[in-house]
Amino acid sequence: MRCRMPRWIIHVDMDAFYASVEQRDNPELRGKPVIVGGSPEQRGVVSAASYEARKFGVHSAMPSVTARRLCPQGAFLPVRMDRYAEVSCQIRQILLSFTPVIEPLSLDEAFLDVTGSLRLLGSAEAVGRQIKARVREELQLTASVGIAPNKFLAKLASDLRKPDGFVVVREDEKEAFLAPLPVSRVWGVGKVTEAELHKLGVMTIGDLRRLPLSALKGKFGQAAEALHELALGIDEREVVTEAESKSIGSEVTFPVDIADVAELQRTLLRLCEEVGARLRHEGVQGRTVTLKIRFPDFTTITRRVTLPSPTDLTEDLYAQSRQLLEARAGLKGRAVRLVGVSASNLGAKGVQQLPLFPEPRQAKLREVARAVDAIRRKAGDQAIVRASLIEKAEKRKRTARNSNHVAS
Question: What number does CATH give the domain 1-175?
Fold first, then answer.
């Protein structure tokens, strides 16, 4: 009887991707704290922070005004989504030279299944080192690489020694690898779940592995089995290629649970900007818009809507996802741990299914989108700012002045 070939999964995670691209493109920024995101004056949010900025406590999803207070000497730069999408495609081409089985998670990270490529390429470790070398040599960027028998372990491995990390976890090493890690590193364990596990005396993944499954079920119900399997290092999920998933999306996990609907809407707009830019860059359009929400107890819901015709416009994506958020997500004041947006039902690349007589508004928006993409590619996302966002920011400033309250 032949045994199943051991799987080898690689997780590639670019280091501080947006900020690193900016430092590469402008050598004067190298070695300096760089914060990429919305303007502090317009209540923007940090999209990425260089490792130099992180030393001051700056991190992604933080309000830009807070980042400026922590790191006033930092270089605050607008998001250039088209530029990052362009570099992401260059990274993708490098990865595709090793295997076609690639699952992009965002512009800056992806899973690869290299199991079927090893006869030609050698060991998974050799492949991982070649990926790192080519990214450095061809793009002047660094990537952290984790290699393991499954996605969960590979992701943990890539996070362990950032930046420029390289960690291999073999099947017979997974127990020792997982045991000392804090239980919060298990997928799905947020602040609330972590606190409940701490009450059970579970501080590490090793503690979680030793806890009887019956005790977990009594506390977490159906989610207990997934927690138990991950604690054992078991993860049977396959690497799903973009062609198989037929969707392009982006999501963000907040460092602190968010209950402010306005903050969720701003994050939603930023995600729709990224998804729209990727759709246009790939030359595809989506008919179905999906909103993903994860609550602090790691309950996850998805809500979707199918449009009459496909789109690649940020305005359409945001209008639909915002409607889903407000009308069908059932927030009712609940805090949110993760929010994501994706477009699926994609039209074939280069074959966009436009109606025979497009609405004038859609045609105009598409024309404007192309022009905005070109300008932002050269000058950054803040070169053109949506008037509605400026108006909201000014209104908040006036309200703050009228109430004699200075926002921190």
Answer: 3.30.70.270
